[in-house]
Write a structure and sequence with these properties.
Layout: H1 13-28, H2 35-42, H3 46-62
Amino acid sequence: MTANANASLALSDDDLLLLNNALNEVLNGPGAIDEWEFQLRLGVGRKHAVDLLARLGRVLDGRGRH
């Protein structure tokens, strides 16, 4: 997939919460991945993950699940 490609995927609220929590842990938890190795280990830059976490949070907030 190219950097500008989009995909659609149907996710349940529990799926969204799982992704939100997992991203939060790798970004902010005690085992957070250091910035210097983030791209190497996850395949995206830290900023991309931070932006996705924010988007997931907005969706979950809108559903009363965050």
